[in-house]
Amino acid sequence: MRRDEQEAGPGLRLRARYGASPLHLLLVLCSFALAAYAGIRLLDGHPLGVVLWFVGAAVLHDLVLVPLYSLADRALRAAPVRTSRARTRDAAAWREQVNYVRVPAFVSLVLLLVWYPLILDRVGHYASYTGLEPGVFLGRWLLVTAALFAVSALCLVARAVRGGARRREGG
C-alpha cells in the first residue's frame, strides 16, 4: 500500500481502489441482493420457463434491438451533418441536443416493452386486475409519450434561452 493511501482514511482508500464512494458500493450490493431475491422468487414456480424467457430476452435484445437502436441513433446524430458539413459548431451542438430525443424515446419504449400486453390489447384478463377497460391503455401510453416529448422540448427550450442569455451577457 502506498504511503498516501495509508495516511488517508478508510473511505478514501476504498474510493481509490473501488473508484466510487462507499455509498455507491452499498447501493450496488443492495441491488444485487434484491435481484437475487427476485430471481429466487421467480424460479420458485416455473424455473425452465423463467430461464427460457431471460435467455430469449437477452438474445432478442443483443441480436435485434441493439443493432436497431444503434442504427437509429447514428442516423439521428448524423442528420444535420449531412446537410451542413461546414458548420462543425452546429453539428456539435446537435449531437448534444440529441439527448432531448433519446431520453423520452427510451422511456416510452421501455414503457411499451413492459406494458405491451395491455397497450396492444393482447390479454383481456388484466381488466379485472386493473379495473379499467382494455382499450384505454394505448391512448394513455400515447399521452404519456407525448408528455415525455413535451417536457423534453421544454427543457431544450429552457436550455436554449439560458444559453442565449449567457451569450448576450458575456458578449
Automatic annotation (TrEMBL):
It comes from the Bacteria. The chain crosses the membrane at residues 21-40, 52-72, 99-118, 138-158. Keywords: Membrane, Transmembrane, Transmembrane helix. This is Lipoprotein. The lineage of its organism: Bacteria, Bacillati, Actinomycetota, Actinomycetes, Kitasatosporales.
